[in-house]
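Hello everyone,

My group is preparing for a crystallization screen and wants a predicted model to guide construct design. The compound we'll soak is nicotinamide-adenine-dinucleotide. Before spending weeks at the bench, it would help to have a computed complex in hand. I've included the protein sequence and the ligand's SMILES below. Output in structure-token form would be ideal because that's what our pipeline reads.
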Amino acid sequence: MITILDENFSQLNQFMTEKSFSKVFILVDENTHEYCLPLLLGNLETDIAFEILEIEAGEEMKNIQTANQLWEILTEMQADRKALIINLGGGVITDMGGFVASTYKRGIQFINIPTTLLSMCDASIGGKTGIDLMHYKNMVGTFSFPEQIYVYPRFLDTLPAKEVKSGFAEMLKHGLIADKKHWEDLIQLQHLDPVGIEPFIPQSMEIKQEVVNADFHEKNVRKTLNFGHTIGHAIESLCLQSENPILHGEAVALGMICESHLSYLEGLISKEDSGLIIENIQKYFCFVDLTDFKDKDIFSLLLNDKKNSDAKINFSLLSGIGSCVFDHQCSTENIQKSIDFYKKLSEF
Ligand SMILES: NC(=O)c1ccc[n+]([C@@H]2O[C@H](COP(=O)([O-])OP(=O)(O)OC[C@H]3O[C@@H](n4cnc5c(N)ncnc54)[C@H](O)[C@@H]3O)[C@@H](O)[C@H]2O)c1
Ligand SMILES: O=C(O)C(=O)C[C@@H](O)[C@H](O)[C@H](O)COP(=O)(O)O
Ligand SMILES: [Zn+2]
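Reply:
Good plan to model first. Here are the tokens for the complex, ready for your pipeline.
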């Protein structure tokens, strides 16, 4: 259940009163500790003892070592099955905290309080939890719903501009796969500041929630939420191993450019529509330099994508602005062309 918090966080306080948790663990990273935790603690009314668990910020922390440390701390602090984890942060915190909670003692309860645009509109919703493995994205994880998701848009006031942009990429994705009007509303925005984007957050959350409700375990339509992620995740993984890591949303923006062009090459959308989509994504996102990456390394990552079956790469591609098909297998030639297309575009 997603709730927009009032300024006293009264819905959260009511939830805490109604449930009898033995102990509360608030998971933060160094930035959400500084910028978001004071607001949460200033409003939280509970007699239950709580502990703060802090990890360093960044995707590099979303791994088994961090999960292990958190499991150990929970054990040392004698967290029992009636303990609650509150994930206060961006997608790294909600993915990681959800994973730790859903596996510790075979599962304890957790709630998500997203503090980035990306986690409000996407990562905190839908119950995909997980960690990266050897730079492969989200390779180990669970499907586990949080007890509650509490959204407080004012957390965005301290979010750096490039993180706002990163979240905006997933919002654009929601419009492209499911709601043309949402896409058209978003591309009217000239400046990506939280105040301008805020009115569109509920619609983006709703699109994500609806798709998840239709197919929680990603057997079919949920795969559309992965549009832009097949090539996007491959490049994100390569960048994570380089000296120039990129943000998840930046990778998704790149992936959506390649996969929109691929949708056209595969005869699913018109040249005009793919051109329009790419032109608009380009308005907001800088190009990522791919010159250092070998095509064979990109393909090797594509071959490990979670949507694949029978050693075939399954793409989620656009069949129009606002509609998406899944399990679409493309020719190797067209996949290569879509990557070359991006490289060429970035030369101009
Ligand atoms: N589970 C899902 O469905 C899902 C969906 C999309 C993305 N993801 C995952 O989410 C992750 C990306 O999430 P993200 O973009 O939120 O990254 P993030 O969690 O790393 O947060 C981005 C940065 O912003 C900082 N920050 C967070 N809130 C802040 C605030 N209010 N003020 C100031 N700084 C703040 C963080 O410390 C961090 O440095 C990736 O690992 C991605 O794979 C998961
Ligand atoms: O919720 C989903 O389903 C998504 O695919 C949302 C994506 O934006 C998100 O990045 C997700 O973590 C990707 O999942 P993965 O299974 O491709 O790792
Ligand atoms: Zn994503």
